[in-house]
Amino acid sequence: MTHSIYPALRFKENAKTALEWYCSIFPNSQIIQQQDTAVKAQFAGVPFVGINSGSPFTTNPSISFMVICESRSEIDKFWKRLIEGGSALMELNQYPWSDYYGWLQDQHGFSWQLYLGKLSDVNQQKIVPTLMYCGAYQGQCLAALNFYQSLFKSFRTQGILKYTEGEFAGQVQHSQVIANDFTLMAMDSGVKQDFEFTKGISLVIECENQAEIDYYWNGITLHGTEDWSSWCKDQFGVSWQIVPKNLWQILNNNPHALDAIFKMKKLSIQDLIQAQ
């Protein structure tokens, strides 16, 4: 399946090497395209982009990647590789929500949750980005989901579970949605955190035409903020990149297009094609 939404991982300078490492870990993975500053790949059939930012960036578990595994041995295999040079956030063990589960941060600073479950429960999407609303955005998960439902042209909620006791009773403990055929999970943190979303991980929306770029850009920035080079941030702190579906083709056809991107906020397809 071709997804119009997928995650982008930000690196200082080693995006290609890092993405090749992930490809060596997950089956059905490969580098698809590459430019000087970005590399596109798929991990277990799920698209990812790695971006060389050339400057320091920050990552934290506010966005992690839930890997759905159907056997303990599969979890053990992924855990052994992903934790190389990284650290455990929650050790592999049995938990109330899964008979076998662990949460780790890898050597590049990105977080992975390994979960024993069924692919049929996540629409056969092996890796599911998981948004955790915390810090200044604690308790705003449900409002964010309502906003995304109004934003995306195709959106379906597949379940919302709320905390029933404690300080965060009534907030979202876990939710699963499908936005434009891409499965996402979201939650409010169950404990207070001193971090929140950063540009270290963003979500890319590929658009069919300029009208779609305008639609998503205007919708996200209405109560959010504009940034440069296709980046914007919604009112809940999540960073998005709004790009044309044929961006890689434009970059390949016009060597001046990349420089033009750096001078834009919202991207103009026509200006990219005609850049000199």
Automatic annotation (TrEMBL):
**PhnB-like domain: from which residue to which, for each copy?**
4-114, 125-243
> Where, by residue number, does the polypeptide cross the bilayer?
none
- CDD domains named in the record: PhnB_like
The record, for SUPFAM superfamilies, names: Glyoxalase/Bleomycin resistance protein/Dihydroxybiphenyl dioxygenase (SSF54593)
- The protein's name: VOC family protein
